[in-house]
Design brief:
- The protein has 3 helices and 7 strands.
- Strands 1, 4, 5, 6 and 7 form a 5-stranded antiparallel sheet that branches.
- A hairpin with a 2-residue loop joins strand 2 and strand 3.
- Bound molecules: zinc ion (ZN).
- Zinc ion binds next to strand 4.
- GO terms for molecular function: peptidase activity.
- One of its GO terms (biological process) is proteolysis.
- Keywords: Hydrolase.
């Protein structure tokens, strides 16, 4: 199971993630973290979705070890990205045109996070917030 724990994020990303959640809450947004760290094996499973005869849509372009979610420090999970979904009326809102996505994205970018829902992102992935390369 991929992790949803803030403690499995990179030490530099943990305070940013907590601040992000705090500011979202203050703005009236209910945000659920769906993934922080995932292992290489879990990443490979995800990569196989929609490929090699597997059904469904492709969900990632990263193989095991290539995703910011797979990052470790001294063998410990230290993901450089987290994924979210806004909860609207108690249910996850997956429709990316809902204004909650733009609101959450703007809050993340104010904190210096690299939000992949922004125009011109390397690829469009609305749930994905990544620690900027320092
Ligand atoms: Zn992600």
């Amino acid at each position: 199971m991929p992790s949803r724990l803030i403690e499995d994020l990179h030490p530099d990303l943990q305070p940013l993630c907590r601040e992000f959640l705090k500011r979202c809450q203050a703005a009236g947004l209910d945000i659920l973290i769906t993934c922080t760290y995932r292992s290489r094996a879990e990443q490979d499973q995800l990569y196989a979705q929609g490929r090699d005869g597997n059904t469904g849509a492709r969900v990632t372009n990263a193989r095991g070890g290539q995703s910011a979610h797979n990052f470790t420090l001294q063998g410990r999970p230290a993901a450089r990205a987290f994924d979210i979904v806004p909860m609207v009326g108690g249910k996850p809102m997956w429709r990316a045109t809902h204004p909650a996505w733009q609101q959450a994205g703007a809050i993340g970018m104010t904190l210096g996070l690299n939000w992949y829902g922004r125009p011109g992102a390397p690829f469009r992935e609305y749930p994905h917030f990544e620690l900027a390369r320092g």
